[in-house]
Amino acid sequence: MRNLDLRKYKTAFSDRASVGRSGLSRRITAMFAVMVGMGVQVMASPPIDPVGTPLFSFDQASPSITQPSSIIHPDDVLRIFQPDLQPEPAFGGANIGLGQPGDDLDAMSFSKSAVAPNQQFIFMFAVDRATTGDVPPDPALLDSEVPFNVADQAARGHAAGDAFLTLVNYTVNGPVVRGLRGTTYSNAQGKNQFDEGGHDFGGEPPTSSRDYSSDPEDSVDSMAYEMPESARGVPGPMPAFFYSVAPMSPSLMTLPGNSPADIFVHPNPFMPGISPQRYTSAADLGLQATDNIDALVVLDHDDNRVFNEGDKIFFSLSPGSPSLTGTNGIPNVSSNGAADILSAQYVDPTTVIVEVFAPAAELGLIADSDNVDALEIVFCSDPLACGLGAGIRLVRGDWDNDGVVDINDFPDFVPCLSGPEEADVLAGYDPVCLDVFDYDFDRDVDLADFHRFQFVFAP
To answer: Is residue 30 pLDDT above 50, yes or no?
Structure first.
């Protein structure tokens, strides 16, 4: 099975080439239409060492929220109870002082109180619908068939419902290594918005990482791991729950603070009837009241739910926040500043240091419209290894997504065949062909790709 009859294949290719570019295009298109009619679904492969799916929320514009039959709301904290099910509320907004129509939970974090100064971690983050990334996949991950990153998924039309991993590792004091990589910083996709072997958010549109879509997309605008675990948080009882609320949320008028840059805290959001408190105000952080914190990780070192000595906050501000611009703004922000991860370090009652902790470029975000919209940390000392293990994978040649490349994938290779320098034929109707069968990344599918395709066949 490892060596198909190349002579027969060459004859078939010659016959196809003889019909000319337009005839070949019609024949390929017709064959692909038959496959679509048969319900062919092309998926990617799940990570080999996945990170867990955190609790999360969708923003107000998400189709999973706006559809008439929806039972979830933008102030609900959601979970995937088990793979292949739709997201459901882990707890509602009313548990944390929200619950009014129009309320939108914008950022959340369970406290990481015992992160040691030398503990290494990477950031897991989500982006909004306007983010394009504009950075190609990391070459080392691409060679290992982990090609999906922010730029890739944004080009396919569904990056806002995903989660991505930085390929830089940090301690609470900053990056472990900066400026030693030979290529541009990038990221790896760790969670998809829909089904990828259960490693997803169960969102809309119902697409794989390989698919292209122009349908409305859900946007993950907050996420946090529910329980502390050795790989992601700290051991012990349920930590406090910290959060911020989107501008124009009606409950900002009744919470103990009225700014979208205030951070609120609840001792246990799974227990209703307890009033939230304000952990820290926008003014305490040196921010303006009209700033908006839209991504958050809180290190409340003594678990006292008070912003005091030893505490540190990682956060991001939404586009247009006034502290990102002007002479009194946060120094050294990148582009529009909304894709930078900022930090606030409590020093003493009169001093809080707010600075850029991880510039946007380290996350693989360089476009002017990029925005980090949710944030969490994952303990990791080798970011490339973590990206490789936790990244959603592409098994090149495996059209039917059964984990092996075999004779069952060959019928789908044939209609993808374009011949050298005919990528425009493919680009007109099926870019997935290039994803699956373009082994040499030259933007066509030809005999050079078939040569490599036949030698990866499973026996």
So the answer is: no
Where does 148-285 have alpha helices with state H?
150-156
> Which pLDDT tens digit goes with each residue over 274-305?
999 999 999 999 999 999 999 999 999 888 99
Q: DSSP secondary structure string, 12-62?
A: HHHHHHTTHHHHHHHHHHHHHHHHHHTT-----B--SSPPPPPEEEE-TT-
Please tell me whether residues 280 and 373 are part of one structural domain. yes
What is residue 393's DSSP assignment? B
Closest CA to 203 of 66, 47, 64: 64
Do the Cβ atoms of 340 and 153 come closer than 8 Å? no
Residues 337 and 330 sit within 8 Å (Cβ to Cβ) = yes
Question: Which tokens sit at 207?
Answer: 């697409």
Which residue type does 317 have? Answer: L
Task: Identify the sign of the CA torsion 314, 159, 76, 79.
Answer: negative
Q: Quick check: 407 pLDDT over 60?
A: yes
Beta carbons within 8 Å of 96's beta carbon, 6+ residues apart: 105, 241, 243, 264, 266, 269, 276
Q: Which of 218-232, 294-308, 335-349 has the lowest mean pLDDT?
A: 218-232
Domain match, 166 and 20 both: no
Cβ-contact 377, 199 below 8 angstroms: no
Q: Are residues 122 and 197 in the same domain?
A: yes
Report d(CA 250, CA 91) in Å as an integer: 19
Instruction: Kindly report the backbone phi and psi dihedral angles of residue 224, in degrees, each rounded to the nearest multiple of 5, phi listed first.
Output: -165, 145
Task: Determine the length of the chain.
Answer: 459
Provide the domain limits for residue 88: 55-390
pLDDT at 26 over 60: no
Task: Examine the domain organization and report whether 365 and 414 are in the same domain.
Answer: no
Last residue of a domain, one of 390, 416, 433: 390
Q: What is the pLDDT of residues 144-156, one digit of tens each?
A: 889 999 999 999 9
Q: Rounded distance, CA 91 to CA 271, Å?
A: 9
In terms of Cα–Cα distance, which of 343, 312, 302 is closest to 113?
A: 302
What is the side-by-side order of every strand in the sheet holding 293-299?
Answer: 293-299, 312-317, 341-348, 351-358
| Structure tokens given for 117 | 């100064």
* pLDDT at position 34: 37
User: Residue 433 is which amino acid?
Assistant: C
CA distance 249 to 13: 61
Q: How many domains does the chain have?
A: 2
**Per-residue tokens: 24:** 């070949």
